[in-house]
Amino acid sequence: MEAGEEFGPWLARQLKLANKTQAELAEELGLTRAAVSAWITKRSVPRPTVMGEIAKALGTDLGTVHTRTTDTLAGLPVTWYHRPGYQDGGRDGGNAAAFAFDADVQVLARETCQNSLDERLVKNGRPVRVRYTIHEITGEALEAFRAAILWDDLQPHYQAVSESASDQKVGRVVDAGVRDMFEKGRLILLRIDDYNASGLTGDDYDDGKFAAVVRRQLESLKSGRGAGGSYGLGKATLWAASALGMVLINSTLSDPHEGRTERRVIGRLELPWRSVDGSPYAGPAWLGRPDPETPGAEVVRSWWADEETAERLHLTRDSEEPGTSFLIVGAHDVASLEQAESDLADDEEKGSDDGTRDIRAMHRRLVEALGRDFWAAMTGGGSRLPLLETSVRTLRNGEVVIEEEKVDPSEKQPSRTRALRAFFEGTTVDRLTEAGQVALRTVPLRLPLSGGARGTLGIHPGVLLVTAAEDDDGVPNQVHSLRGSRMTIKKSGVSGLPLGVNPFQAVLLVGRAAGESAPFAEEAEEFLRAAEPPEHDRWGQTEELTLRWSHTAHHRISRLTTEVNAAVKGLVVRPRSAGSQESAKLRKKLTVPRKGAAPKRGSGSALPELDGLDAEIGAGGEWRITAEVKLPRVDELPAMTPVVLLDVRSGSRPRLDWAELVAVEGCEVADGVLRFTPRARRAVFRGSTDAASHTVRTELTRLVLELRAGAGE
Predict the structure, then answer these.
(1) Which residues does 352 contact at the CB level (< 8 Å), separation at least 6?
(2) For residue 545, what are the contacts with CB-CB under 8 A and spacing of at least 6?
(3) Phi, psi (deg, nearest 5) at residue 75
(4) Is-contact 445 509, C-beta < 8 A?
(5) Phi, psi (deg, nearest 5) at residue 175
(6) Are 458 and 519 in contact (CB under 8 A)?
(7) Residues 177, 243 contacting (CB under 8 angstroms)
(8) What is the pLDDT of residues 674-703, one digit of tens each?
(9) Of these four, 139, 228, 546, 691, which has the most CB atoms within 10 Å of its CB?
(10) Are 202 and 211 in contact (CB under 8 A)?
């Protein structure tokens, strides 16, 4: 049971909500204004006999005045506030942050679970629990929900968006979402609940977690230094996953706000610019209680909802444990459509179709994503407890379609889970000699000095774990790399493995994941976090890495990869025995007569391939590149054109001009085209870009080099 707010601040807010002054309340109670002022300033409290009169004046019951755990319902009812159009005529075609991610529930699971991990309450040592609920509603349940979200007030805005849908990508998605709801008579709600998390604490407008999520873009206020997110973009996946652009929120706070913790509710709508009844609206809208302190009491803020309201909005939480519930209204998963089509074919064969294909496919994809990306966070051992627990359940009109399924990391990733548990329990070995063993090696991450200074800050010993692969692990011979939040950041294969290597799986732990006491763990955490793009799915050159360290800082990560690959090979590649060497010598002496064969011809599978690349920025702002090309064993090699491009997040990559292109070994350069020396096994060339063709300052760019057949056009 939560403690009530102090009487004075509570009464002051109720007067604002009811649009009453202290003098007006005093007159209704037959008291002096000084008496009411003394209550407001906490110098005194009213006598019990006066409490009933105060309740009557505020239009509420005596219990509400005594407990003060919720606001009265007097005046200013919950409504939608739509941000007015910009006075300078500017227009937004939607929230640009949402375009950083695909409308994919697997991307949604990755970003939301990461955010919950970042907000885990660590003092109690328990994991954060995240549950995904897919709920399809139809018929009366759908009508009741539309009434709860004040659909009649929203419909003119959706209609305006639909009328201009042909001109806006977001508008087309929203228009399709509205048509799907009415034509099919259904709506898919996807709720994400986390428990043992901080909740959306802080003021409605000032700096804090609430404002960062609900009011602002590109702001990340995470609780821990080892947080997985850093861009403030992950929350945009919630709105990107809604075909209606609507997300409702109910948060239980770890730190009280206005004396309360439970059922802090607000909604946010993301629509493109629109004109309704001649009035322009910029885009976003919020569902909340009008704030009397704003001009005209038009802007809305969060409100403390009662249990009935939370239930009507499908936002009821299971317990008083801190955390937040996000309800995605009109959830859609474009990537699951292919799976749903496959299910349809199966249903037609079996002669059965209960109309739940979409939500069943969504359920499977969520479970798959959670097991793939968060297996390490859900694994414990020794004195190390799991950081995360996840589950998925699917309902239709409140009836269970798929029972709640708790994601088991040892079932989804058996080999990697075994490896991590062995590290936690201290049962690793130096070399693999028996089935089920886990070998450990340390690999150095040489941390650079910040500010572009030359030298090394220190060497952080990353932990590499290698074990035999099992059938349920997916693609074998891969390294999963992770840091403090224990979310899989990078998945990569090991190049140059000889034939006959037994299948294995490897895990690389760096930063705080390598151990809180590991040398330079915090510095490695900070460095690698800066090397991640918004998707947090790799380490490489980023703008932050360039600005805080240098444009060559990412080479330290490349060296780490080289060290990891060498260590893996040292553990899984069997050394050649004397007997095998003698057999190889014998095979060389044997010849097999055969008919003359036609000369080999170059083909799509026998093209020259880039095998190495080194680049630096010259004094004039140009890229200086040295590239190595691997040449196949064919008699004729096609001419190839090296093309240098700027790496961009979306759209076509801008092409840069060469200022100089020269051959070093195994090739000749003529008119920007490489022609390779016959029977050469490798070629090397150097080049410098024309700085005048750069559209962005070189220090802030990433480079892509391609070899294109022929003239390269």
Answers:
(1) none
(2) 527, 530, 531, 553, 554
(3) 65, 165
(4) no
(5) -60, -40
(6) yes
(7) yes
(8) 998 888 888 888 899 988 888 777 777 788
(9) 228
(10) yes
pLDDT digits over 413-423, tens only? 999 999 999 99
Burial zone of 63 (CB within 10 Å; 0-12 exposed, 13-18 middle, 19+ buried): exposed
Q: What distances in angstroms separate CA 22 from CA 13, 59, 84, 625, one per listed residue?
A: 11, 16, 32, 74
CA geometry: angle at 89 spanning 86 and 92, to 5°?
Answer: 65
What span, in angstroms and rounded, lies between the C-alpha atoms of 133 and 191? 5
Note the maximum CA span of the chain: 118
Which tokens hold the place of 703? 């480079």
- Exposed / middle / buried, residue 112 (Cβ in 10 Å: 0-12, 13-18, 19+): buried
Cα–Cα nearest to 492, from 440, 534, 537: 537
Count the Cβ atoms, other than its own, within 10 Å of residue 399. 8
Query: Considering Cα of 496, then 501, then 505, then 509, what sign does the dihedral take?
Result: negative
Strand order in the sheet with 703-709: 667-670, 673-676, 640-646, 703-709
Task: Give the global pTM.
Answer: 0.73
pLDDT in tens, 428-457: 999 998 889 999 999 999 999 998 888 999
Place of tokens 């790399």: 481
For tokens 């948060």, the residue is 251
With tokens 């050649």, the residue in question is 576
Which helix (H) or strand (E) segment holds residue 140: the answer is: helix 139-148
3 state SS of 665: strand
pLDDT tens-digit map of 518-537: 999 999 999 999 998 877 88
> DSSP alpha helices (H): ranges in 507-596?
521-530, 543-548, 554-572, 578-589
DSSP string across 457-473 = EEEEEEEEEEEE--GGG
Q: Which of 614, 672, 605 is closest to 643 using CA atoms?
A: 672
Beta-carbon-side half-sphere exposure of residue 453 (alpha carbons within 13 Å): 8
Helix (H) or strand (E) holding 392: strand 388-396
**CB distance 437 to 394 below 8 Å:** no
Question: What's phi and psi for 385, nearest 5 deg?
Answer: -90, 155
Which residues lie below 8 Å from residue 328, measured CB to CB, with a gap of 6+? 108, 189, 190, 191, 192, 238, 241, 242, 246, 247
* 242-252 vs 274-276, strand pairing mode: unpaired
Cα–Cα distance for residue pair 438/420, rounded to 1 Å: 9
Task: Give the Cβ contact number of residue 459 at 10 Å.
Answer: 14
CA distance 99 to 183: 27
- Cα distances (angstroms) measured from residue 478 to each of 267, 552, 584: 42, 26, 30
Which strand (E) or helix (H) includes residue 444?
strand 438-448
Q: What is the DSSP letter of 136?
A: E
Q: In which residue are the tokens 């051959």 written?
A: 663
| Pairwise CA distance, residues 141 & 312, whole Å | 10
Phi, psi of 558 (to 5 degrees): -60, -40
Cα gap 527→547, rounded to integer Å: 12
Residues 91 and 274: their CA atoms lie apart, in Å, by 9
Amino acid at 317: R
What is the residue type of 399? E
Tokens of 191: 């709720």
Q: Please give the radius of gyration of the chain, using alpha carbons only, rounded to the nearest integer.
A: 31
Report how far residue 448's alpha carbon sits from residue 560's, in angstroms, rounded to the nearest whole number: 13
Q: What 3 state SS string does 609-628 have?
A: EEEEEEEEECCCCCEEEEEE
Give residue for tokens 């650079």: 448
Q: Which amino acid type is present at position 700? A: L
